[in-house]
Amino acid sequence: MSALETPPDAARAPSGSARIDGLKSCLPVMIGYFPVAVTFGIAGVAAGLTPLQVVLISVLVYAGASQFLLLASIKAGTPWLWVVALCSLLNARHLLYGPLLSRFLPAALRDRLKVAFLLTDEVFATAFNRLQAVEPGRRQGWMIALGLGAWLTWIAGTAVGVYAGDGLEKHYPMLSQVMRFALPALFMALVCQSARRGMGWPILAAVGGAGLIAALGYTSLAILAGAVIGCAAYRMGRPA
Amino acid sequence: MNTNGLEFWGAVIAMAVITYLTRALPFMLSERSRLLRRLSREGSALSALGPSLLAGIAAAVIVPDLLGAADDAARIAPYVGGLAVTGVAARLVSNTGVAVLLGMGGYGILLALAA
């Protein structure tokens, strides 16, 4: 189901306090975030960062794809200006979330700016599907609970990966291997879910082009090429 | 990139600020803003940028793994199978986290079967 569709139960107003309801809605996001964050913690230490550096990245940046991009760039020796530029491109999709959620959120800018820090892909998708079913007066509390639940899970998962990752590797090697699969699985899931109507061909073109360049060993360039190829294919596919 | 110097922290802070700004800036614009309407309009060039970038990153993450495991059927089959399970799950359930967990479960089962 696309994040832009409204599920049939959206019309039912959630019961209980707004924060508890927000946390309940956050549960699937938390379950999904934890292993990915643990993987980030393990990968961060493996990339040569100190535990504090890894945890602070999760606290401050709080954007999974950008954080893994940072680790990949450290490994590949990519210049930091490139990393920041790629991060900007990567996050450009967030610009769409505010306009789509604006009509459901309280009008006060201060409240909206608090929500903005917590607005990841998954938080946006959950909020977009459920926020309209929450009473307007309770939406800020609901949204903050949803966002904070996801953020704290991300930080906790990172810390577990940093401090317990070694033990996991030694005692449960298969579990560690499965957890490392969380990253390709996350991007596979995000790509499949973003392939809404009219976007299938651009995504296939982007995967094909970027895959070819990545196979040649230029992974940073592959990401940029994927963006350009996908947008070009989208433009070519649109009626004039 | 040197991970001990100011350069590293500069990059991290810049990424944090950029990430926050991309999330917060649209809230600062007036609801009648032309830019806002263009950004949220179905069919704008930006609407293809996000999915295309995700596709590019997915390729950059997955293709090196596939090439690394190309000669070992016991590694590549569970990997491809796990991706297929994730893809199907992502199309069937709206929650990305659940799709990731199902994909990881599928990968784990296939890995155990291949061992």
Can you characterise this structure?
The complex is a heterodimer of chains A (240) and B (115). Chain A is 74% helix and 0% strand. By secondary structure, chain A is an all-alpha fold. Chain A folds into 2 domains: 15-181, no CATH class; 195-240, no CATH class. Chain A starts with 17 loop residues before the first helix and ends with a helix. In chain A, 52% of the residues are buried. The model of chain A is unreliable at 1-15 (pLDDT under 50). Chain B has 2 domains: 1-41, no CATH class; 45-115, no CATH class. Chain B has helices at residues 6-28, 34-40, 45-68, 73-92, 96-114. Chain B is extended and about 55 Å long. In chain B, 81% of the residues lie in helices and 0% in strands. Chain B is mainly alpha-helical.
Can you give me a brief rundown of this structure?
By secondary structure, chain A is mainly α.
Helix content of chain A: over 70%
The largest β sheet of chain A comes out as: none
E-strand count of chain B: 0
- Mean pLDDT of chain A, nearest integer? 82
- Determine the fraction of residues in helical runs of chain B and give it as a percent range: over 70%
**What is the multimeric organization of the chains shown?**
heterodimer
Query: How much is the average pLDDT of chain B?
Result: 83
What gross morphology of chain B would you assign?
A: extended
Strand portion of chain A: under 5%
Number of spatially distinct domains of chain B: 2
How many helical stretches of chain B? 5
The greatest inter-chain interface is formed by: A-B, 112 and 74 residues
The overall number of domains of chain A is: 2
Structural class of chain B: mainly alpha
Give the low-confidence spans of chain A.
1-15
CA gyration radius of chain B, whole angstroms: 20 Å
Largest sheet descriptor of chain B: none
Low-pLDDT regions of chain B: none
Task: Specify the structural class of chain A.
Answer: mainly alpha
Q: How many helices of chain A in DSSP terms?
A: 12
